Amino acid sequence: MLNSPRNRSINPSLAIDNCSTLELPPAAPGLCEFAEEELWGPDFGYFQIVSLRPGSLDSFGNLEVSPPLSVNNKEYPFGRIILGGKKPGGYASTKRQMTSNVRQFVYAQKVQSPIEIYTDWLLVGHVDEIFSFIPDYYSSIDGKKFKLLVASPSLCVDALKELDAEGHGDVVMFKGKKKPDSKGKWISAEITIGQLLSETELVEFNIFDCQKNIDINKAILKKELGLDDDDFIEIPVLFNKVEYSMETIVGTTDTIKAVAYFPDMVNHLVLGDYSLAPKPHGPVINGKDYFEKMMEKALPIGRLVRFIEDWNTYHAQDGEVHCGTNALRRSFEGKPWWIYMPDGGFDI
């Protein structure tokens, strides 16, 4: 499924889905871009959804799918679709939402019963900035066989405060890295733990605003996916407070948004037993990046992490590893979608 023919990030532009049909494959018109030239072939089709006014929330980093699961005695053999948009109860037309063309298509996938969470508070506004499913084949005791990584600003702030209290306040983070200032000029990104913690407005924004918004979404997913606290794994992620005019972000009047401060390790690619995560460039303590160590320790037994440098290619441009990658997953075998009749469904 293709979102936009011109986009540097393959995950937001292209979603790889699985589809079975009772009919012969339809003839597909050509598309003179990557999907047609590199992917299209036997048993691999594509189509494009066009919007007259596309926005960031229409990208496919904002469309994720849970692993197969059972919720309240209802089976979801193909998982459930998760997409981001307005805050629950936020019906104002000025709030950002995935375009109706894409949402209508998503809701037509009745067997995957979509869930909507609140991502409009993020500058980019994508689900993959704050949540990521990973396999857990060994420690799961309830049959779920997965965990859900969740960005935790509170955990990140607490870790930095702990390091500061232990005498590491002068440790420099983002060594050798540069970032664009408000005028687009590249300046040094280096900052010490103590200097960061002294930015009271930033710290409070993460603890009281960002964490609150993430907790709202955790509550939604707990209810809709039948999860409990043990199904979540918190990963240290800090967000920067950014201000934009309403003309900059299509469809919103809010000028305060959040974007990853450190490279966001939740926004990563899952490949088998490996997690390919962005290198966070956090505080190096005893020769080891402290945030890398926290992530490695938090993951389930048998899960390995490889940290990838994405600072210039994606992080500095408001993206991460998951934005710049995509994966062709093994299709479901022996589970034709048409035998799963959802509540309120019809004879498909």
UniProtKB/TrEMBL annotation:
Domain of life, per lineage: Bacteria
Name of the protein in its database record: Protein-arginine deiminase (PAD)
InterPro entries in UniProt: PAD, PAD_C
Domain Protein-arginine deiminase C-terminal: 30-338
Leader sequence residues: none
Gene Ontology terms for molecular function: calcium ion binding; protein-arginine deiminase activity
UniProt organism field: Candidatus Kentrum sp. LPFa
GO cellular component: cytoplasm
UniProt-listed Pfam families: PAD (PF03068)
